[in-house]
Amino acid sequence: MTRDETPLKLAKLEDILRDMDGMLVAFSGGVDSTFLLAFANRTIGDKAVALIADSPSLPKDELDEAVAFSEGLGVRTIVAQAREIDDPRYRANNPDRCYFCKSELFDLCRREAERLEIPWIADGFNASDVGDFRPGKRAAAEREIRHPLAEAGLTKDEIRRASHDMNLPTWDKPAAPCLASRIPYGTEVTPERLSQVGRAEKALREQGYRNFRVRYHDKLARVELPMDQFTRLADPVMRRAMVEAVKGAGFTFVALDLEGFRSGALNEALTDQDRIDYE
User: Fold this and answer.
1) Does residue 274 sit within a domain?
2) How far is residue 186 from each of residues 19, 89, 96, 145, 265, measured CA to CA in Å?
């Protein structure tokens, strides 16, 4: 789709939201749900409510930013404690882990929506997500969660451009999936491991790195950086600072992935049959 079609899609999104006449947004503070919440607030006002799930897999900084943004819009904001970590199926960290996480999230949303008599629950799923490996889609389908951005045909690039036009701070925000996505399938997800990865990534963000991942491999942290940031590590001072930051989070060894940053890199280990079985 070209940018010229974006206004038509935005008009369609406006129609969708008006027809819904009220929704609770599963809000994470990412690019997509931020745009949806802001657009809904502009379109249907106080009929849009935000629910933010507080969980060990969400970095504290991300939680605080999400709450500040939502409240700054004047949107009614609910912070609910998510307990997916109590589910042994989630902790087992099979390729369908996201199904159990999203099930917990959407069940939280359902309880709040029923309490507040809100007719719909919506998330930031968009047209660019349709072909991805996303077991959470099944949890959404089972609970009749709406995807207004996808229904309007909006892609990720279009959402970023529209976010820029609306002066949203997230328009160029790197993708930030939950911390559990840093732990290889089959390795148990624990609060301690999530916290360890979160501390390492926070330390690297404070050094100015963007759009990267720290992958957990027991005592070893595998750092994925965009290729254009590799040159920073030719400087021994910068390299030592990275090593000390990651070791400071509790890792013994620090490795740089020579293939660079890849969103969803841990899915590379999945076979085609795995994708069929677990989605």
Assistant:
1) no
2) 43, 11, 11, 28, 15
pLDDT single digits (tens) 87-134: 999 999 999 999 999 999 999 999 999 999 999 999 999 999 987 777
238 by DSSP, 3-state: which? helix
Q: CA-to-CA distance for 107 and 139, rounded, in angstroms? A: 10
Q: Residue 20 is encoded by which pair of tokens? A: 């819904």
Where is the domain boundary, 126, 141, 165? 165
> With helix as H, strand as E and coil as C, how does 51-77 read?
EEEECCCCCHHHHHHHHHHHHHHCCEE
Q: Which of these three, 97, 132, 165, is where a domain ends?
A: 165
Q: Between 236-248 and 191-206, two packed helices, what is the crossing angle to 10 degrees?
A: 150
Domain residues for the domain of 17 are 3-165
> How open is the CA angle 216-218-222, to the nearest 5 degrees?
40
One-letter identity of residue 28: S
Q: Does any domain span residue 273?
A: no
> Does residue 174 fall inside a structural domain?
no
Domain count of the chain? 2
